[in-house]
Amino acid sequence: MKRSSSRPDWGYFIKEGLTGIKMHGLMSFAAVTVIAACLLIIAIFGLVAYNIGVLIDGLASQNEIAVFVDENLSREEAQALQQSLESVPNVESVTFVPKEEAFDIYLEMLGEDAYIMEDLREDNPLRDEYRIVMKDVALHDETVEALKEVVGIAAANSEKEISDKLMQMQRIVNAVSYTLVALLGAVSIFIISNTVRLAMFARREEISIMKMVGATDGFIRIPFIVEGMTLGLMAGLVAFFAQWGVYDYITEKLVESSGIFSTVAFSEIWSMLLPIMLASGIVIGILGSVLTIRKFLRV
Amino acid sequence: MIELQDVYQVYNEGGTHALNGISLKIDDGEFVFVVGPSGSGKSTIIKLLSAELRPTQGRVHVNGFEIENIPHKDIPYLRRTIGVVYQDFRLIDNKTVYENVAFVMRAVGAPQRIIKKRVPYVLELVGLKNKSRRFPHQLSGGEQQRVAIARALVNNPDVIIADEPTGNLDPARSVELMTLLEKINGLGTTVLVVTHERELVNQLEKRVVAIERGVVISDRTGGYYLDEEK
To answer: What's the rounded Cα separation, in Å, for the pair A118 and A171?
Structure first.
């Protein structure tokens, strides 16, 4: 009694879906543009968060602490501190860096601008310092405290503070990113849903006839899902290339202007970014079309 | 086979009783007219047979499906056993005659190879083989209705239901259409025609079921029209 339908004709579904996109060329173009813009904004924040994460990881893996010797101590007295420092728990190694050497390192870091400081060589404002490597990074705070206790040590410095600030920043960027994903994701889904609604409205007569002759709901839906999915996919692709341009431009400007920031090159992340962008586009497309179709097909 | 047993249909708005305990049985291969004034429940019967509605009470059996408790997912398979022809043809304007017919075969998952054989055959049956590349607006009303019949027929249904099929046609075209439906009936398909046209009904010696206020008031073979007895 039940007549089974034969296997699905994907050529037909894809052709019908693409016909829908062509039929509303301008609307489809507008949808793709707006969704690509949404994806681009989300991706920019995502990559900022990603870069901060990479920076933090880099800093966290540095288990080096610099401690500075009280400038009232003589060179001999300063060098004599070596033993006391080595006896502090969790200390792996201790290296003495005289202030002349520290000054050279500083000048090197300044690069072209070093000449500004050159005059100060005679009146070196830096202190002698020790570079201390920890055994266990987890005991960072305790170790810093213990090092400060050593008589003759004026201050201890580590990348910990920068790392903490970055983590705070990362939390904010993450929060903004998640909010944007929710907000712009909803906007994108709404746009797809409206575009597909238009397509379904244009073909309502066809749909009602298909229903009357016994087309299954799935058969009627698939072309519209294909349509939404294709729009999302196109938006994902556009967003990826736009992101490429924007990212390269921003990182170039950043590195150029500050010289301090190191950023991850696009060539290292594109293979991760492309599938994420395309998948987001596809998911948005499917969700948007399914939402509309569910409302439309109840007969 | 179509069978209605003591069927009631009450529409929610104002509790309108469209059907009031109607019973009707149509065997395979029959040609039946259903006649009655507007509001008598004719359209409701068509909606019940295609499961657009479920009966408020009673049993409706169509080609082995029980409409009163048919699962939603089975409705498409029920509808494949029925071909419906509408008064306003309901053709798709931007598809050719061939495409209008072919697309309903595709809609039920028929392979292209079968579609290519079947569509020309059905178009020939309704006498439109030469016009398969025309668009609906290039055809006369009678021709458009024959496209609609070809479309209803193409998936090889057990029953053809025609809802006021001659409503938009002149008398000569109406007779042609009835002749075509008789021919289709001759090939073994059950035909159910819902109509007002007394001339037509009286011309053809067929079973006529008269309905008024949601019940059958007369069911007999031979020329009959409601108004004549009044």
So the answer is: 40
